[in-house]
Amino acid sequence: MTSFDRSIKIAPSILSADFADFGREIQAIEAQGADWVHVDVMDGHFVPNLTFGPPLCKAIRPHIKTVMDVHLMIAPVDPYIDAFADAGADVITAHLEAGPHIHRTLQAIRGAGCKAGLAINPGTGIDGIEYLLDQLDLVCVMTVNPGFGGQKFIHSQIDKVRALRAMIGDRPIHIEIDGGITPETAPLMAAAGADVLVAGSAVFKGGSVSNPAPYGENIRAIRAAAEAAR
Ligand code: DX5
Ligand code: ZN
């Protein structure tokens, strides 16, 4: 990963990609301007959906030239950290709600050589983050309930991001937002202080590996709306 900055970064979620063609989908979104590649890992237990695990991450890693941003929607987390690190994750994000020992989890993520992210569900406040700030490289504010792509943005999270941005101050911690991000919702969050914008359906809609230009148009529309709101 390059050094820390607060520029707007678009992180397409491959949850909305063609699951039979991840390698070419990743090459297409990066060629069309993606800054990071967001990988949504779900266990059918912490969230009511199943996606993929470390072997898939390892298989797609050679196709990712930017940043592999792995969002773990799994519980427990700790037994799998080394496997996702070995698979080549740059950032590993675990949920605050995934277990009682998130401090230990964040230490283990950094210990495995990755950037440590903490995700919080829409119903979770930021109070629990205060004593974790020194352990964090990223906070992911969920703007939908995790589990599925294509859900509606939850507006109450705007105030949360604003409060989180104030809490973070000058610390080199990214604020990522995840769920329901479009050219309409991205500027609300960019203005509140988010810098990493995850988007699945809004990036992949209208395009394919054989017709990737819409991916670029979608990415540019989200980025332009977010940057104009800064
Ligand atoms: C939700 C995932 C998101 C999701 C975003 O559980 O963490 O990354 O795929 O999808 P859209 O942009 O379609 O809401
Ligand atoms: Zn995600």
Automatic annotation (TrEMBL):
GO molecular function, one term: D-ribulose-phosphate 3-epimerase activity
Reactions catalysed, as given in the entry: D-ribulose 5-phosphate = D-xylulose 5-phosphate
Positions with a binding annotation for a divalent metal cation: H38, D40, H71, D178
Keywords carried by this UniProt record: Carbohydrate metabolism, Isomerase, Metal-binding
Family annotation (Gene3D superfamilies): Aldolase class I (3.20.20.70)
Source species, domain of life: Bacteria
Cofactor: a divalent metal cation; Fe(2+); Zn(2+); Mn(2+)
Cofactor: how and how many bound: Binds 1 divalent metal cation per subunit.
Pathway annotation from the record: Carbohydrate degradation
Function: Catalyzes the reversible epimerization of D-ribulose 5-phosphate to D-xylulose 5-phosphate.
Family note: Belongs to the ribulose-phosphate 3-epimerase family.
Protein name: Ribulose-phosphate 3-epimerase
Species this chain originates from: Rhodobacter flavimaris
Gene: rpe
